[in-house]
Amino acid sequence: MRALVVLNPNATTTSLRTRDVLLSALSNDLDIQVAETTHRGHATELTRKARADGVGLVVSVGGDGTVNEVVNGLLDPAPAAGETIPDVAIIPGGSTNVLARNLGIPENAIEATGLLLDALRTGRRQSIGLGRLDDRYFTFTAGFGLDADVIKAVEAERERGRVSTVQLYVRTAIRRFFAQPERRHGVIELTADGGLPVRELAVVIVTNCTPWTYLGARPLRPTPFSDLNAGLDVFGLTSLRLAPTLVHLAQLTTRRGPRGRAVVSLHDRKEIVLRAPEPLPVQVDGDYIGERTEVTLTSVPRAVRIAY
């Protein structure tokens, strides 16, 4: 089988020696072409070309951002009727690797390669659903407002040379929380599946699986019933008052998830529309993608097949 290995050379947990070992192992079972990404969006460009060339498998070696770009390269433009798109494989190399951990793929790159080789030899594949925010697919989460604001600030720190760590995210989240102009109530309006709108949300996180992310080894579950084989789930807060917010943050670490008067929880929705009077930051799979006053999120069932 012909395969494209999309490799992020800046992946934080994959050494050059590890990459050499996994590429050698993959080349024993696959006819591989290796491409290193050089700029944002490059993995999408590479994957789109591989799809046009009839490659059977795209292997993402990197973090959640690399996986996201690969998925967008596979599905944009939308496949024609009857068109077969390549399968996807994930070898984690980022700092968090949320989708891989949700799927049970080992964080160790060599172990993940071994699992992939076994899947290739046995024909094992699993179809998963995705989310889509306007024209951008996401694999596990999208956010509008505060969480995207935190990611925007972290990306700015990384551009200044800071290393992405749990501590950096925590410090940035605290700083951006207190920088919010209005914490007593929000400005976001949410409409799900054409129902009645929910107004004055201060934060909205949309998920495609659970956990939503990890604080080190600890999983965080704002939407504990979210499922890759179901629709989209929503976690929202109508207030960011300090004491209740701290309680809700602690509840993220439990299997029941957040609960209380300020919590809005929606499960298994097909379409979600979010609006705000002024542009707010937007993120997909942990990547800041700009500011908008309105976004539409849709569930896309059985969108890609994962080999693992």
Automatic annotation (TrEMBL):
This is Diacylglycerol kinase family enzyme. The lineage of its organism: Bacteria, Bacillati, Actinomycetota, Actinomycetes, Jiangellales. Its cofactor is Mg(2+). InterPro entries: ATP-NAD_kinase_N, Diacylglycerol_kinase_cat_dom, Lipid_Phosphate_FormReg, NAD/diacylglycerol_kinase_sf. It holds the Pfam family DAGK_cat. One of its GO terms (cellular component) is plasma membrane. PANTHER family: LIPID KINASE YEGS, SPHINGOSINE KINASE. Belongs to the diacylglycerol/lipid kinase family. Keywords: Kinase, Transferase. Transmembrane segments: none annotated. It comes from Jiangella alkaliphila. Residues 1-137 form the DAGKc domain. One of its GO terms (molecular function) is ATP-dependent diacylglycerol kinase activity. It comes from the Bacteria.
